[in-house]
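Notes from the 1:1 (GR / supervisor)

We went over the backlog. Supervisor wanted to see one worked example end to end before approving the batch request, so GR pasted a single chain during the call. The sequence is below; no edits were made to it. Supervisor asked that the structure be written out right there so they could see what the output format looks like.
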Amino acid sequence: VHNTKQTAKQETEKMVASASTKMDELLTNWLGSDAVYESVIRVIENLKAESSNSTNANNSNVPIASVGDALTTVDGRPPLSPKLVMKQQQQLVKKRPEIPPFYRPKVVVEQTQDGDNPQNPPPSPPKRRINSSFTEDQTWDGIYMANREGGGGISGGGGDEISKITAHEYDTIATDGAASAATPGQQSQQPQQQQPCIAIRARELFQELGVFPSALDSVEGLPPNLPTILYQYERNESTYHKEKDDMRLVPMERFERITKELCNFPTFFHKPLYDRILLLWERHITSQKIKLPPLPMVTFGMFHYFWDTEMAPYDKDERFFRLIKQPTQEYITRDDFFPYIKELLSDHPGLEFLSDHAEFQDKYAVTVITRIFYSVNLCHSGRITVRQVRKSDLLSVFQQVDEEEDINKVTKYFSYEHFYVLYCRFWELDHDRDYKITREDLLKYGEHSLSHMIVDRIFDAAPRPFESVDENGNVVKPSRDYLTYEDFIFFMLSEEDKANEYSARYWFSCVDVDGDDKLNNMEMRSFYAVQLHRMQCMGHEVVPFEDMLCQMMDMIKPANSDYLVVEDFLQDHCSQVAGALYDALFNVNKYVMFEQRDPFLERQKREDEFDTDWDRFACIDYNRLAMEEEQREEEAMEVDWVTMDEEEEDADEYNALGLSGSSEAPF
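Structure output shown during the call:
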């Protein structure tokens, strides 16, 4: 009876723990929603308003009878005593702290006779800029300084001379050194850097790079009906085309400086950015029922509209996210990256040698995009959200590859050497050249280092990066009979670098046979039994399961000694040792190397130039593949010389017999 009660108690605890885990996952997903985030902010603002209203009511001698409204409850609890309610309300008036505002309150600027009061701070920024990474005003016409100075912006046209710009059209930004060193009383005396607002900087660039409709004869490749369309815009005078300068046009090939200097996007984004501006403008005139045809070129007014809607309200990460994704979606898919990688291939000097190899250009683009999803989309849903973009270094890596001429120095995502290693490994295993890796093919990986048990689990349970779509647009689950090139990239990145978060989750899903999110001793013993048999056949020293498990537990230090969860592998001290347990379970070669490791070599590895195990492996493997390629070329040259000598000997005999009319040199 005691054992039965104990068993029932354990099962109940497991059910409660499982339910609590599911609730934690649901709560995490719920709190990750932007809509929920905005709702929480509104609740805070409402609580603040209620607090101020209750304070005003108590200060105006509210009669006791009105307290009866507070006695009624809606959650089934009994009402409080009227005296207790009055006492609590009085305490709230005295002690209840006021909830600080989430956004800075609006400041009423008192105007002097000169129309300026430098002692008052500028007005608060828009809501979405509270977490902005910009240090300068990103509104179109410098609205912060405009409100502070008591003037208006320059949303419409204006003169071309910068000398006519009023003071509010500049963003006043204190330098970082002055801001950090000066006290609040001294900051007003520090020199400040004057930065023109976005409208002025954009107007200068459009004046330098653009042309007026009357000068379009100098631009080649324009549609024949463009003058008619421009005439309709000049007659209509829409919101963004009121002045003459608003009609200034910039061709696509001249849009690089605007993309880099004004929008802070990589240079090779200029064509997709140009197309996006045209698309959004066409949707704007359609939704507003403006009787204007779409323009094939970007005008100053169209760029003004794009900045107001897609740039000014957002920070750098969200601007990047909104540009990459489709306008109708709230996430980034695999296909959204292809136009940008295509422009990188045609623009980057380190990839010029691929210009004559269209097939390898496509494979390189697929490799880069798959690696992006591997590192950014940790939930392997095939959809990158704005939160994932914020948590990643995606934008900074795109900026780095735009500025770095050597593509191989950008080891994250874009390195051609890394692509070469991944594709050659896939090509070596794919003997029938159908771009599909079977179970038999994968068993040959790493000189047959993987056990057949883990290979079966890779095909059955390993995460797949992308879902396929049929002709009707329905999502089709990926086939488990083979690995595609994208699947193989996920596998190889996880196999050669087990110190990152996605690799830990990838292999945990494979060894967690029962799918309870716990790796128990029975599951580990079943994998290790295959390893023991392989070590015996290979003549290595056999390590008992208990000794191996005790060693791994001492290194990982799990929260519960009865089982392991994936969070145990993500601890800070486990970044370099978590992969040792996975190697012990299914990779016999790496486990033997781990048991026979040299401390001196391990120290050298920690002090080398590589940031990750994958970077180290890719560099070594690329050098190996390069040496093999050189050897093949040398052997081919030797074969050519031998064949040429034999042909010369045959030709000499042929000529000696007088069977040839001429004796030309071989070159």
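Supervisor's comment: Confidence is low (pLDDT under 50) at residues 60-85, 92-132, 144-191, 659-667.
Batch request approved.
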